[in-house]
């Protein structure tokens, strides 16, 4: 992979994920957000990883651990297996394989991720954060709906 190529594999970084990392553009789909988050791991754009996680989960992220994970691995390739952009009006699912080298051997991280759209922007629903929220409380995505009736079903 050349230096100018986008880590996500879709052309030049400058015209692919970089404008998103710089806040000059917004992901138009859950798949695009997913790709840009992979690229952010490869480029150590940790702020972007945080900013694109569901609003109510950002505080709970272990930013130091994310930064360490980003830097400890060599990010080889992203493979989007499938994207379902409309699970419902505000939720999407993206299945992907992130290929990386952990310093000892090549690894593949295979995941089915869920995303929520809030006020026109896509956010990642992180299934690993500790959420102190009950089913009846307002959803972590900011929708104003009860958690149970919104993102809980995708976490
Ligand atoms: Zn929600």
Tell me the strand percentage band. Answer: 25-35%
Count of discrete alpha- or pi-helical segments spanning 4 or more residues:
4
Oligomer description: single chain
> Which structural category do the helix and sheet elements fall into?
alpha+beta
Q: Low-confidence parts, pLDDT < 50 over ≥5 residues?
A: none
DSSP strand count: 4
- Cα Rg: 15 Å
H/E topology pattern:
HHHHEEEE
List descriptors.
binds zinc ion, 155 residues, four-stranded antiparallel β-sheet, 4 helices, alpha+beta
Tell me briefly what this model is:
The protein is of the alpha+beta class.
Question: Could you characterize what this model shows?
Answer:
With 155 residues, the protein is α+β, with helices and mostly antiparallel strands. It is built from four helices and four strands; from the N terminus they run H-H-H-H-E-E-E-E. It has helices at 18-21, 30-42, 46-51, 63-72, and strands at 74-84, 91-101, 106-118, 121-125. A four-stranded antiparallel beta sheet has the order 1-2-3-4. Strand 2 and strand 3 (106-118) form a beta hairpin. It starts with 17 loop residues before the first helix and ends in a 30-residue tail after the last strand. Residues 116, 139, 141, 143, 150-151 line the site of zinc ion.
SSE topology:
Elements lengths: L17 H4 L8 H13 L3 H6 L11 H10 L1 E11 L6 E11 L4 E13 L2 E5 L30
Antiparallel strand pairs: 1-2, 2-3, 3-4
The structure holds zinc ion.
